[in-house]
Amino acid sequence: MKLKVLIIALAVLASLGSGLPRGVAAVPHTVNIQGILTDSLGAPTMATARFTFSVYDAFMGGNALWSETVILRTGPDGLFTYHLGGINPIPDSVFSDTSRWLGIQIDSDSEMLPRQRFSSVPFSLVAGTGGSGGGSFLPLAGGTMTGPITN
Description:
By secondary structure, the chain is mainly β. 0% of the residues lie in helices and 33% in strands. The strands form 2 sheets. Strands 4-3-6-7 form a 4-stranded antiparallel sheet, with no helix packed on it. Strands 1-2-5 form a 3-stranded antiparallel sheet, with no helix packed on it.
């Protein structure tokens, strides 16, 4: 049976880091995804299946920048929810460009087409590195900082 997935929503989960100065939150490195698994006729399917999620730098072809394979069980209405990066952390570099696409493969079927383009929310993953893919922040707790800023 050929299965399809309808993507409902993508959103970054908010989480607080431990060991950080008070008032500084860690940038979450998971992306929430929800979808409905359907059969070839479009009917919701309750199933246990192997999902492979991949992030690409192109709508077709291109390079897989990250991937993760998990076993998920859908509900009676075909609904599934998963946090991308839950097993294989998503490096900041994956969302360092504005054109990223999600590919999904179920079991041994071919990857579904078309790939789904990520919206701006996952790109906040690089916010914790100042948007440069590397580096650090200087937390300030009140007061003033003066003088030149150098790298």
